[in-house]
Specification:
9 strands, 11 helices, alpha+beta, four-stranded antiparallel β-sheet
Amino acid sequence: MSENNNKKRDWVDVGVKLLTPVIVGLLIAWAGYVSNYTLSSISSRQESARLITELQIRREQAESALRKDVFDQTLQAFLLKKQETDSSIRGLSKQLLRLELLALNFGDSLSLSPLFTEFRRDLFLLEPGEEDDLSAFEDDKGELRKRLYSLARRVANNQVASLSQHGVSKLIRIPVPAYNAEVAKDCSLVLYEAQFPWPERIIQQSIGIYDDKNNLLLSDEVIKEMFKSDENRSVYIESLNEARGMELQRKPRYLDVKISDIDHCEKSAKITISIYKDGKVDLQDKENQPEEIPVDGLGDLSALSSQHGNYILETERSFKLDYFNFPIVDNTRLENNHRFAIVLDEFDLESKDPYIELIGIIFPSEYASLRDRPGMKEARNLLKSALNDEEDEEDKEKK
């Protein structure tokens, strides 16, 4: 029995000795194959990525070269215009085509407002030439004017749509009831010689303080008596805050717009924007309430701020607004690396209830035009804000 066991052990030992080199060899060969396959796959992926990157770079270089050529030729043809070729409807039509090429391809990088304004001036001064049809001359000028405004609105609306994905926008409608057929015939007549404050005038009209023609309906005594009530004041101020409030990245702001001198022929207006920050009026706090809201400052944040101290003026600007303001390029710097822009969206004076519409938008500064690079302080604040946002996200995930 012991001899049989010894023989079995001998065969097992022999088998182990014979199979061990074979198994080790197979394992080494398999490991080598896997290693080679892995290295080959990595190398292949790296080569594919390199080729894709190289193709993308070459594509961008070719596109940049093409855009540069188009830009050079178009801008040169636009600026070095010849008087004899551009003093006709056909000449200005070609100029407008060049402006379209510039605006649609380079509107995010260049301030094209001067070119639009110059073209409108040339169109206004255009007199009939030898090749122009006198009977259709004014109609042709009108068509060019429509094309010009349509192009400007198209560029501005595209930019607003792009910025709205990253920011917050507000629609501002200003009624223009004084516009009528008589006013339409006289371009020297302007609408709203007195300022129209938005949104307070809209709310004041809704509660009967002003009529739709911007005329005060109630006496000072009646208005003061009306706003002695805490409830009336609370509803009024809350309505104003809701109408003008804009919040981006947990930074609340309040927008006041004053519009005047509306030119119905040039489709432009004088506008003053005031942007306030830091909180709403707390009407439950008796110590901070004023004895009375001044009649001439109803809803005016500057007046309320001086009495409550809850509003801080962040920026204020006055300028002429028309269709040739483009938000990516024409904007105002705010704190927290934000920008504010306002555009003329609609100038509808032909409807039953004529009005103009503006769009105000607050957006992060990284989406502004590349030509307006941030300073070192703004860049540091932007980096700090990004790091803080990342830490906040990590804290939320941990919770």
